[in-house]
Amino acid sequence: MIFDIRSLTVKSKVFVWPVLAVAVTLTAQAQQSKVAVINIQAAIISTKDGQKAAAELNARTAPKKKELEQKQNEINSLQDQLNKGTNTLSESAKNDIYKNIEAKKKSLQREVEDAQADLQEDQQKLLQQLGQKIMAVIERYARDNGYTMVVDDSSQQTIVLYASPSIDITKEIIELYDKSTQQTSAPTPTTSKPSAAPTPSKPAAPAAPKPAPTKPAGQ
Q: In angstroms, how far is CA 39 from the centroid of its own chain?
């Protein structure tokens, strides 16, 4: 079992958002309401933030992936050695190679499971952050457009037998999310007022001459 780096791509189904999975039963009253559907998984991983998160995960896990691939290549090399030496190697040598292969397989299996567990934990942390942001966008979009219900059709808990493409708002939510985050992160331009021209200083008036000291009479 090899650590599958493809689980980090933006098209991956590993990106699961459990908190946003909403199970909805359509009653007669709900059928008269304005309803929209969204693929929340596709929405999250298709936003710019989602693509950036996937790229960061790929970068962080690349060294581990390479390490696991090297260990798998070692196992393949030993297996090839065992196959080619079926008629030439002694039983003792074949047993040693076989035991070595099994030990490496078990070690690799444990490392793969640990790596996948770490990966899923990192994914869930990122999805929690992105999910909270995109939920705010969905709620605002639903209020502004008069929707009384938004159903997540990417969840296995939600049974959607049919939904017209005309009520799918996935694309609109992605665009609105990217637009809102771009506006939030963009620096606010500051308008500087032109500084007032300095007031020319008036020349200082010449100091009045001091009166000469008067000598007392009789001197």
A: 17
For domain 5-185, say whether CATH 3.40.50.10860 is its number.
Answer: no
Give me 25's structure tokens. Answer: 């039963």
- Residue % of the chain over a pLDDT of 90: 50
**Residue 204: both structure tokens together:** 């200082």
Displacement of CA 36 from its chain's centroid (Å) = 25
Residue 107: which pLDDT band, with cuts at 50, 70 and 90? very high
| 3-state helix/strand/coil string of 48-76 | HHHHHHHHHHHHHHHHHHHHHHHHHHHHH
218 dihedral zone (left: phi>0; alpha: psi -120 to 50; beta): left
| CA angle at 12 for the pair 9 and 14, rounded to the nearest 5° | 115
Per-residue pLDDT band for 173 (boundaries 50, 70, 90) equals: very high
Q: What's the CA gap between 180 and 176, in Å, rounded? A: 6
Q: Is residue 150 helix, strand or coil?
A: strand
> What single-letter amino acid sits at 202?
K
pLDDT, greater one: 181 or 208: 181
What span, in angstroms and rounded, lies between the C-alpha atoms of 183 and 63? 35
- Per-residue model confidence as pLDDT tens digits over 126-164: 888 898 899 999 999 999 999 999 999 887 777 787 888
- The pTM assigned to this predicted structure is 0.59
Cα(176)–Cα(166) distance, integer angstroms: 17
Distance (Å, whole) CA 61 – CA 40: 25
User: Could you tell me the residue ranges of all domains in the chain?
Assistant: 5-185
